Automatic annotation (TrEMBL):
The lineage of its organism: Bacteria, Bacillati, Actinomycetota, Actinomycetes, Propionibacteriales. The keyword Nucleotide-binding applies. It holds the Pfam family ABC_tran. It comes from Aeromicrobium halocynthiae. Belongs to the ABC transporter superfamily. This is ABC transporter ATP-binding protein.
Length: 529
C-alpha cells in the first residue's frame, strides 16, 4: 500500500537528519499507531506520506516514498488527496468554511467532483460518523470531539485509501477520545481503510492498533505492539504494570490485564501507601466565580482554593468550563461575578507584568505566547522580563524537552516542544500560582514525568499549582486535590483516591486493573519493593 524505501530526511537548518535510513511498509486495512518521544519525527513521518514534506516544509529528502508501487516524491499533496487524507493536530485551525456540511463538501469542490456525487458523499459521511444532527451547526460551536469527527469526515468525502491523523485525541476528554477511536476502528473494519495515528497517549490507542511504529533517535521500527513495547522507552501504564509483574505476553488492554491480576493483587495485599502532601496557607482563593460569553454561562458560581505546596487539578468533558475558569483566575478573563484573592491582590486589577507574578498561565494553544524569531531569543526575553539569572529559562526547557536548538524558530517546533518552551517561559517568572491548561498535550511519557517533577518542585518551593487537563494518568500521578466540572459547575472534589474512581471515564488504568485504591504504577512498584 504505502512503502518508504531507505528514506532519510533533514530540515534545512538542522544539524542532523530527523529520519535516517527508514524502511517501512503499511498494508491495506491496518490501524497503525506511530509513537515515540516528543520531537523525534513522528509528525514529519506522517507528512511524508502525503507529500507535505518536503514540498511545504523544505529540507532534503533522500530515498523514495511509494503508493501502490508508484513514487509520490515531488507529487503535489492536492494530487494525493484522493489516496492519502491528512487530519492535523488542531482540526479547528484547518477548517476553511463556516458549517459542518460546507466543510464536508469543501475538499470535493477543490477536486472538481460533480455536485450529485458530492451530495451523496456528504450524506454517507454524515451517517458513517454519526454526525447527521450537526449538519447545519457552525464549526466553532462544536465540542472538541465533534470537531475531530468533522475533520475526519472532510477527508473521508474524498474517498482516500489511507487516513493519517496527528494526535487526534490530544485535546479530547476520555469519552470523546473513545468515540473518535471507535470511529477509526470502524473505518478500518467496515471500509478497509489504512489508518495511521500518531499519538502520545498510547493507552488510548494500543487496544485498537494492529501494528506499532516506534520513532526513536532518527530510527524507525515497526512490528507487533506487544513485542516492541517489551523494551520501548515509551509505554502506557498497562504495559509498565505488565513489565513490573513479569507478565508474558504483555497485555495490551485493561481487559487482558484484569484476567491476570490475581497473583499480583495477592502480593500487594495490605501494602499500599500514598504520600500525603501537607499544604500551607492559601495562595489563591476564589469565591462564587461566574464567567459568561454572551448568553452562554461558561462558569457558574465556582469556588477554588489553592494552597502553598498544593497541586489542584480540574477535569471535565470538553466544554465543561475549565479553560474559562483558568483565564478568570489569571485575571485576563472577565468575571461576571465572584471574588479573587492571590496573596492579597486581584490579578484582574493590576498591571500585566505584576499579574504574571501572581498567576502565570500556560494556555491550551501554547504558540499564542511565542512571538520572537528563535528559541534563544524567547528564552532570553523570558529571563529579562522575569529579572531572572540568564539561562534560567533555557535550563527549564532542557529539563522538559532536551535537544531543542537555540536557532530553531518556535513555530517550527512540534506541538510538544512549543508547549515545553511556553511552560519554561511562564515558570521563569516564578509566579505564586502556576495555572496550566492541558499541559501534557503533545508530551511523551518521559516529558510528563519531568513535568511532574517540575510541578512538584514548584509546589515544594511554596507555589500553588492549578492544572486543567483531560489526562487521567497524569492527574493520578501529580494531583493532591481533584475537581471535576460539568456544565460550568463543580460536581465533585476531593483527593484523587476519592474522585477518580467515581467515574470509569476518569479512572486510571491501574485502578481499572487492580482496584482497591491503586492509581499508578509507581505506587505498585514502591509496594513491591
Amino acid at each position: 500500500m504505502i512503502e518508504l524505501r531507505d528514506v532519510t530526511f533533514g530540515y534545512d537548518d538542522a544539524d542532523h537528519p530527523v529520519l535516517r535510513d527508514v524502511d517501512l511498509r503499511l498494508e491495506e486495512g491496518e490501524l497503525v499507531l506511530v509513537a515515540g518521544r516528543t520531537g523525534t519525527g513522528k509528525s514529519t513521518l506522517l507528512r511524508l506520506l502525503n507529500g507535505l514534506v518536503p514540498r511545504f516544509s523544505g529540507g532534503e529528502l533522500a530515498g523514495d516514498v511509494l503508493v501502490d508501487g508508484s513514487s509520490i516524491v515531488g507529487v503535489a499533496p492536492r494530487d494525493l488527496a484522493h489516496v492519502v487524507g491528512h487530519v492535523p493536530q488542531d482540526p479547528l485551525a484547518g477548517f476553511v468554511t463556516d458549517t459542518v456540511e460546507e466543510e464536508l463538501a469543501y475538499g470535493m469542490e477543490q477536486l472538481g467532483i460533480d455536485p450529485g456525487t458530492m451530495r451523496r458523499r456528504v450524506e454517507e459521511t454524515l451517517d458513517l460518523l454519526g454526525i447527521e444532527d450537526l449538519r447545519d451547526r457552525a464549526l466553532r460551536t462544536l465540542s472538541g470531539g465533534q470537531q475531530q469527527r468533522v475533520a475526519i469526515g472532510s477527508v473521508l468525502t474524498m474517498h482516500p485509501r489511507v487516513l493519517v491523523l496527528d494526535e487526534p485525541t490530544s485535546a479530547l476528554d476520555p469519552t470523546a477520545a473513545e468515540d473518535v477511536l471507535a470511529t477509526l476502528a470502524r473505518l478500518v473494519d467496515d471500509l478497509g481503510l489504512t489508518v495511521v495515528v500518531a499519538e502520545h497517549r498510547m493507552e488510548r490507542v494500543i487496544p485498537f492498533a494492529d501494528r506499532l511504529v516506534l520513532v526513536d533517535d532518527t530510527r524507525v521500527r515497526a512490528g507487533e505492539p506487544a513485542e516492541l513495547l517489551r523494551t520501548s522507552s515509551v509505554a502506557p501504564p498497562v504495559i509498565e504494570l505488565g513489565r513490573l509483574a513479569g507478565w508474558d505476553p504483555l497485555p495490551l488492554s485493561v481487559r487482558a490485564a484484569r484476567r491476570r491480576r490475581d497473583a499480583l493483587r495477592e502480593r500487594l495485599s495490605d501494602r499500599r501507601s500514598r504520600a500525603v502532601t501537607i499544604a500551607g496557607e492559601d495562595q489563591l482563593v476564589a469565591r462564587g466565580v461566574t464567567v459568561a460569553h454572551g448568553d452562554l454561562v461558561a462558569v457558574r458560581d465556582v469556588s477554588v482554593r489553592v494552597r502553598r505546596g498544593e497541586i489542584v487539578t480540574v477535569m471535565g468533558r470538553n466544554g465543561a468550563g475549565k479553560s474559562s475558569l483558568l483565564w478568570a483566575l489569571q485575571g485576563a478573563g472577565k468575571r461576571r461575578a465572584g471574588s479573587l484573592d492571590v496573596r492579597g491582590e486581584d490579578p484582574a486589577t493590576v498591571k500585566a507584568d505584576r499579574a504574571r507574578t501572581l498567576v502565570g498561565l500556560v494556555p491550551q494553544t501554547a504558540g499564542d505566547l511565542l512571538y520572537l524569531e528563535t528559541v534563544a531569543l524567547e528564552c532570553a526575553a523570558a529571563d529579562q522580563q522575569a529579572d531572572a539569572v540568564p539561562g534560567t529559562c533555557r535550563t527549564l526547557l532542557d529539563r522538559l524537552a532536551p535537544g531543542i536548538a537555540d536557532a530553531h524558530h518556535p513555530r517550527d517546533l512540534s506541538e510538544g516542544q512549543r508547549l515545553s518552551l511556553v511552560l519554561a517561559i511562564v515558570l521563569t517568572a516564578r509566579p505564586h500560582v502556576i495555572a496550566l491548561d492541558e499541559p501534557t498535550r503533545g508530551l511523551d511519557y518521559g516529558a510528563k514525568v519531568e513535568l511532574r517533577r517540575i510541578l512538584r518542585d514548584l509546589a515544594d518551593d511554596g507555589h500553588g499549582v492549578l492544572v486543567a487537563t483531560h489526562d487521567v494518568e497524569f492527574v493520578a500521578q501529580v494531583a493532591d486535590t481533584v475537581m471535576v466540572m460539568a456544565q460550568g459547575e463543580v460536581v465533585s472534589a476531593g483527593t484523587p483516591e476519592q474522585v477518580l474512581p467515581e467515574s470509569p471515564a476518569f479512572a486510571p488504568q491501574v485502578w481499572k486493573i487492580l482496584g482497591d485504591g491503586w492509581l499508578t504504577v509507581d505506587e505498585v512498584q514502591a509496594a513491591l519493593a
